[in-house]
Amino acid sequence: MTKTMKRQKDQPLVRKGHTITHVILVILAVLWLIPIAFLLIASLKTKKEYNMSYIWDMPVSFGWSVNFKYLMDYSTVLQSVWTSILYGLAGGLGCLVVASLAAYAIARLNIRRRMLWFLFIYSGTIFPFQMYLIPVFKAYMEVGLYNTRAGLMLFYVAITVPFAMFVLHNQFRSIDDEVVESAKIDGASRMRTLVSIMLPMSKPSLIVVFMTQFSWCYNELMFGMTLVKSSDIRPVMATITSFSGNVPALLVGCIVVSVPTILLYVFLNRNFDSGIVYTSK
């Protein structure tokens, strides 16, 4: 009887705590959405209306089509979007291939000094990326990779491998040893074990790594501006940065640029539940 009464007294406190948490989350969500609302409002204004009104004033005329036409006529944003998608795919998929092999070797194979190899690869995430700028630039100038698509894709693969290896290493270590031993008993080779067992059971981690690394490569600015100078192979963030003269058109460009990463999340988010169900079997 006493325990029942105590539980009934504790329930209002729990509900009150949940209510406070929800209120805080709603406030943070509103604060997060305010800049996006201002961006959408300003992108609907014409250049003249934007210059003669406050940022929170609602647009009088629908100027989105005019701004979009101006953006297409005086910039190469759409071409740069496709170029950045190519860089993102190369960086995301390339790092998955290299990181999967490295993580599998360190986590599951009997190699010497595995912890030393792990720390050596993971050290790529310890130091700030700015310190790589000058050495990579000088090396690219000497070997002929400066201002090339191949050079930028190679860099994006290399810079994203350490984080991907860290995530996949922990994922591979969490898989039961009995599963790997059963594959060995059935005659599966090491590569077959990786491809047919380890990677399918790590599907959620692979998706998360690909999404984060693709987004980083797609939104990266510093190396895209330093290692590339031609407008036809320049990443989209460098193209947006160099665009000026029409703020509403620039904001329209920001909206257009954000579409690929939003679609990527919407598409890959559907695979999370199926991946989790698969790994729990």
Walkthrough of the structure:
- With about 280 residues, this protein is mainly α.
- It is built from 14 helices and no strands.
- It has helices at about 1-45, 45-50, 65-75, 75-110, 115-120, 135-145, 150-175, 175-185, 190-200, 205-220, 220-225, 235-240, 245-270, 270-280.
- Helix 4 (about 75-110) runs antiparallel to helix 10 (about 205-220), helix 7 runs antiparallel to helix 10 (about 205-220) and helix 8 packs antiparallel against helix 9.
- Mean pLDDT is about 85; it is low at about 275-280.
Summarize the structure.
By secondary structure, the chain is mainly alpha-helical. It is 78% helix and 0% strand.
CATH architecture classification name of the largest domain: Orthogonal Bundle
Strand content: under 5%
Give the total of domains: 2
Largest sheet, in brief, is: none
CATH class of the largest domain: Mainly Alpha
Mean pLDDT: 84
The first-to-last residue Cα distance is: 41 Å
* Name of the CATH homologous superfamily of the largest domain: MetI-like
Helix-residue proportion: over 70%
Number of E-state strands: 0
Radius of gyration: 25 Å
What would the CATH topology of the largest domain be?
MetI-like fold
Q: What letter string, H or E per element, gives the SSE order? A: HHHHHHHHHHHHHH
What is the count of DSSP helices, taking H or I runs of 4+ residues?
Answer: 14
Tell the overall outline.
Answer: globular
